[in-house]
Fold Exopolyphosphatase.
Amino acid sequence: MPPRSLGAFLKAARSALTAPASQRPKPLTIVVGNESADLDSLCSAILLAYFRSHTPPHNASVHVPLCNLDRGDLALRPELQAALSDSKSKSSSSSNLQGVPLDSLITLTELPDDLVAADTRWLLVDHNALTGDLAKRFQKSVVGCIDHHVDERVVPSLVEKGEYPRVIETCGSCASLVVDYAKDAWHQLAEQEPDEATDHILARLALAPILVDTSNLKNASKTADVDKQSVSVAESVLGTVGILEERSAFFDELSRLKNDLTQFTYRDILRKDYKQWQEKTSSYADLTAGFSSVVQGMGYLLDNIGDREALFNGLKKHAQERNLDIAAVMTVQHDEGGFARQLLLWAFNEQAVKATNAFIETYREKLDLKPWGDGLLDDMATEGEWRTCWTHGTQFSRKQVAPLLREAMKSV
Ligand SMILES: [Mn+2]
């Protein structure tokens, strides 16, 4: 059995991954979240890898929780550090509670170049189709998933019963589904090999994404029964069941860390929560669109991060580095003028302009698109390019808007 302590477990998993090819366990099971590498993806991967590694019959070799980001990007997630650190809760009686440092996590930077698909098994959390370089290298070795996105029908549906999970269910947070999947194993482990300090960190890792993704279980359109149940599971481990102040204090701390962008540059902010997709148009051209989700509004960015020119320079550089045809920025405004969401679209060539225009034509009403900021960020004049920023009148986040743009890209 791999070590019970989370810190030691991560060390063992890292050694298994980075060992010379001849000494690496075969096959090596890797658990990975989606490329936005948000709190939900990261915590879900750690939890699923940890619990499967400690549950017979999977515990013969350690599962590697892989953070789907480069090592340098860990620092963009102060809320993850808070989830990984000691509980400040008064109910934690033991004085030896130890947090886990952010840099003990395993990232794409550690993924060996000589790792081949045939020697690996991949379990996906918080997505159900690998993307980017991982897809090119390892798609055929995906064996299971636990996810709350639309089923892309890539994970084989006839996975060996009992061996690998294939769970796709709508709910607020993927971590809720992971906790639900692992809760019996967790109970058993806590009984057979008690380690309160480790269980507290695991419980905070479970609680953090669920609270963030459901707005402290208060967003009724996002919160499902499984989210509430998994919060109960985690809180019973923490000994805080029914103590709503503790829950709210943790949620407030996470929100504060997550929403404070003032220490970052546009370069940081645009890649902090980022996903991209490539689609084939009806004339068989490839179009790539990249979506940056931002937890503050466009006004906040222009006031706190940099002016219009700085935003354009940052976004153009971001797009060039990733060969994007379309760059999209989706923002959430909290303060200035009340809650709102903005969508900035920038098309960099004629085919891309066609796709974005098709998107607008088709979905203007559905999304209730209105020009933002008197057209401050718009550009209809540059030859072969097109850029507009809207406010949209729906609760749609990237999860709902990206599929619409992808459809429009395929249609032109
Ligand atoms: Mn998620």
The CA atoms of residues 162 and 311 lie 49 Å apart. Confidence is low (pLDDT under 50) at residues 89-97.
